[in-house]
Amino acid sequence: xxxxxxxxxxxxxxxxxxxxxxxxxxxxxxxxxxxxxxxxxxxxxxxxxxxxxxxxxxxxxxxxxxxxxxxxxxxxxxxxxxxxxxxxxxxxxxxxxxxxxxxxxxxxxxxxxxxxxxxxxxxxxxxxxxxxxxxxxxxxxxxxxxxxxxxxxxxxxxxxxxxxxxxxxxxxxxxxxxxxxxxxxxxxxxxxxxxxxxxxxxxxxxxxxxxxxxxxxxxxxxxxxxxxxxxxxxxxxxxxxxxxxxxxxxxxxxxxxxxxxxxxxxxxxxxxxxxxxxxxx
Length: 281
Prior knowledge:
single chain, 8% strand
């Protein structure tokens, strides 16, 4: 088994099994995404479709989506008006005999049906374009926000003591990306509006610290100053957050202002004295 799993020892087998399960899950997700892309590609090959999507300027996507959305709404209104007109004309036709007026109205009805068919085809094209652009937006966000989101997930799980296993991006009905908390097991998500004030503060701080760590990877260190950010935290979560700040203090200076003595005592009890310095004002 070790040879098949390419492990040096049987102790490495559980980790290899986890990697294998993770790979199978990622492969299944990849196949699902490829299937979605095939449906959206309109007969083009995946390579051609992906190349077309990559050629789209990400900064121009949102305005185009907004414009297409407005055009779709306008076409919906036109379609509704045409449906009402057709219904009205058919009612009039039912009241008439085989006179010239009846033939004229029938011809008008056919013309309206032809216009409706054209508008329906345009509507489908616009809806498909909107879907393709939404996919491109999501890929762009995953590429540029992935590292920060992953680190925010780790920090949020740590500061909430495992009450949440992390964070992820969801999309609202309007297509806007929103950050939500994920409960252990991934079966329940909680929006910011459903979190307590303390948990919402921990979410914000996790994202802020992840962004700062990313900044420090490319730039010179600068002091990080915070003022009583733990007021709404219980003691256990406050300790976890202080330890996160202490770890960050290995890379840059952390200046923490507070007028709550019990937070000072928690810091003294749970943070290495080599990195903790107290100044009374």
